[in-house]
Design a protein that fits this description.
The chain has three domains: 89 residues, Gyrase A, domain 2 (2-Layer Sandwich); 180 residues, HUPs (Rossmann fold, 3-Layer(aba) Sandwich), CATH 3.40.50; 176 residues, Isoleucyl-tRNA Synthetase, Domain 1 (Orthogonal Bundle). The strands form four sheets. The protein has a five-stranded parallel β-sheet with strand order 7-6-5-11-12, sandwiched between helices. The chain is α/β, with parallel strands linked by helices. It contains 21 helices and 14 strands. Helices cover 56% and strands 11% of the residues. The structure holds one RNA strand of 78 nucleotides.
Amino acid sequence: MMFQKFIEEVCDILKTVARDMGWSGEDLSLDYYDKISDVSSSLAFKISRKDKKNPKSVAEEIYQRLSLLKDKYDLIGDIKLIGPYINFYVGDKFISDTLKEVLNRRDDYGSLNYKGSIVLEHTSANPDGPLHIGHLRNSILGDSLRRILKKAGYSVDVQYYVNDLGRQVAVVVWGIENLKITNNNIKVDHWISQIYIKANRLIEEDNDFSNNNKDIDILLRKFEDGDKDVIEKFDFVVVQCLRGIEQTLNELEIYIDEYVRESQFIFNGDVERIISRLKDTEYAYFDNGALLLDLSSFGFEKDFVVTRSNGTSLYSTRDLAYHAWKARRYDDMIDILGADHKLISSQLKTVLRILGYKEPKVVIFEFISLPEGSMSTRRGKFVSVDELLEKVREQAYLEVSKRREDITELEKKEIANMVAIGAVRYDIIKISPDKPTTFDWRDALNFDKRGAPFIQYSHTRACSILKKGGDFSNPNFDLLRDQNEIDLIKLISRYPLIIKEATDNLRPNILANYSRELAEQFNQFYKDVPVLNAATEELRSARLALVDAFRIVIKDSLSLLGISSPEIM
RNA sequence: GGGCCCGUAGCUUAGUCCGGAUAGGGCGCCGGCCUUCUAAGCCGGAAAUCGGGGGUUCAAAUCCCCUCGGGUCCGCCA
């Protein structure tokens, strides 16, 4: 937390000076990510406006006053004036304290003391086929957040909400019975999607199968009425499909704590109970037998449908019951949802508020589309995650083989796997969730860019040095005064702040960016600063310690993105 | 038609919430660097009307208004 302590000192000294100059505002106009200094302030502009003086002379006065107080602060080194900008630089103590903290806390470095329980819902893809690369953005966002939130100190449970009574499942059940598509040894979720696609086509074409739609409705009706045989058939499809999906997720190091079945909220009476509570609110009204909520006072044009005219529940009603259930069990809820859920999720929040429940925080991500258009499981227009992984693995294996002829086949495969998974995860997580993107095979298979392999490689470089370097005892960090060393340490000192920002904003891409920058900085250091052949034994030890600190942080930050850190590549 | 999101070099992306000092990366392109810790690396170069137009401000990629292009939602579907 050295960087935060440094910021606190800067705030304190600046505030003291500002008060003395009659500035009562809270805003100190700090810029943490300044390229010129460690922290800068443009406060002079603000004060000059008030005093009607020119910014530069105000800055000079601030500077004079800062200089008098500076010695009382431990971590502040230099303060420099560039025009009207006041630039703060960390001092020597900051540098060595940062390294001490990293080497003492090891894996724990960067963790915060956030408290509370969170239920994080992600993926929740319908069990009608394999995961495709659109779902992947959801899964990877969710899993990275799970890791980051845990690092921040929360206890996190991950749930996959299973739509096990939707129309799609009924379509698959119908398809299994009527299409007789045999599974010739393909992964079960892919087999299910074949049935789903074909069945949908027949239903849409509606020629010889004019009764198909009716069949589907009958299946759904029977399910809700508790027909044992139909429930079993639905269950078979759901369980099988989920098995395939889970296998894919696990290959990507994504783990689900609990699969929550939507139907349970019907069977246990929760849905019924929530409907009757909604009926008693002031927003409720009936239209042709259907129960609706008038949410116009909350700014919604469309009313919220609670039950159909025939009394059955809708997806959103059951989702409401699910969220109420979660709200009772956890301090906080987070949902990862695609952009198509924006409206419905804000309606859900509103209704939860009406009922007196806390609302989930919703992380929305925009879609990944294919060059030829948007993806659709129903129409079979998608690239499956399994296919993507297979191709990326293949390419990664070629890349490893190209560089390493000295290692065993098994080692090559292991490294290729780590690199492939890292590449896939990184390429998705590095992009801001609210950016719509188009999937591109050429880019996905390109390893000559600053993606995960680049970062992983910097880690192997550190490992290699440490392996050859042996023990370093009582390193004297005061010897680390090369610009490359200082820049690397400063970046390492930012790590806890990065964790905080990624957590507070629920934005893993902040961390992804940081990891890349940290790797770049280490590569600089690697090139310019000899470690094993340092001028003196003492310097060698100090540098080994720095390399170790880097190794700890880069490995930890990659792990928060679900990317493993190979020791050789 | 209305709501929300996106629009930054040939392509791709950070920065936008909380306005500040020459708009960061990457891919591709051009030119260099392996007798020293693995070159999946490093250095240099060309390439940007920050979609367009107004406005606010000492200062706008960032805030406000208008506008164009793309996505998405506006089902008693999920």
